[in-house]
Design a protein that fits this description.
The model is unreliable at 4-29 (pLDDT under 50). The chain is built from eight helices and five strands. The protein has helices spanning 44-57, 66-88, 96-111, 115-124, 129-150, 158-167, 169-175, 182-211, and strands spanning 20-23, 26-29, 33-37, 40-43, 215-217. It has a three-stranded antiparallel sheet. It has a two-stranded antiparallel ribbon with strand order 1-2.
């Protein structure tokens, strides 16, 4: 069991528009309603974009299968539930500078610090830097919301920390061979246990919120398509 407390967020992607039609003899793009979530509309283009962003961030090939679109729709429903809570609860939105910093880390780690290579990578998924930055900002917003909303009710006792250390001693010694003493690892163990319990509280809240949230999937919302 890792002591890494960072949530990886997986977070979501965005994309292009479905359908062509004629209106007053002019061709226009129709963006179909795919899902109604609460009082909000999730469009086909929202699902498409979410697929693109998720696959880009996960370094995966683009997948526009019906199952991938359904997973994207579920992510967007979850996001809308959280977004409603963020707004109604008056939680602050992180500054854009935090997303810019995360974007800089991604550029450094995946593209050797090259802005051109980052842009080219995004173009292969038909994404823009603005879409990427907005997605990163949303990920930061979710993590901040979870921490502010659920950390206050979390208690990790000294006994909890000691018990974890004793139960996972062999694994901890392999993971931290230079210093695996209780004194050295206690802060990491405490942070890990706090993170697990925060996540558990969040998952339980989200499960209940999802059950009471109005969701309507429109017919034909998840038609399988090839890579665009």
């Amino acid at each position: 069991m890792s002591l890494d407390t960072a949530r990886k967020s997986a977070c979501a992607t965005i994309a292009s528009i479905y359908g062509l039609s004629a209106l007053l003899s002019a061709a226009v793009v129709l963006d179909r309603i795919a899902v109604i979530a609460g009082t909000h509309v999730i469009k086909a283009s929202d699902i498409d974009r979410d697929v693109r962003l998720t696959d880009f961030l996960n370094r995966a090939s683009l997948d526009f299968s019906a199952s991938a679109k359904r997973e994207a729709a579920e992510r967007l429903i979850t996001q809308q539930i959280i977004r409603d809570e963020v707004v109604s609860g008056g939680y602050r939105r992180p500054p854009e500078s935090e997303a810019i910093e995360l974007e800089s880390e991604l550029r450094r780690d995946r593209f050797g610090g090259s802005e051109q290579r980052l842009v080219e990578g995004l173009q292969r998924y038909r994404l823009t830097t603005a879409e990427l930055r907005e997605q990163l900002l949303w990920q930061i917003t979710v993590l901040q919301y979870i921490d502010e909303r659920f950390r206050g009710g979390i208690v990790v006792t000294d006994e909890d920390v000691r018990s974890y250390y004793e139960q996972h001693g062999a694994e901890l010694r392999r993971q931290y061979p230079k210093d695996s003493s209780f004194e050295a690892l206690a802060p990491k163990i405490r942070a890990s246990l706090e993170g697990e319990r925060i996540n558990k509280s969040f998952d339980e809240w989200l499960d209940q919120a999802r059950k009471s949230y109005r969701v309507e999937f429109k017919q034909g919302a998840f038609v399988e398509e090839g890579v665009k």
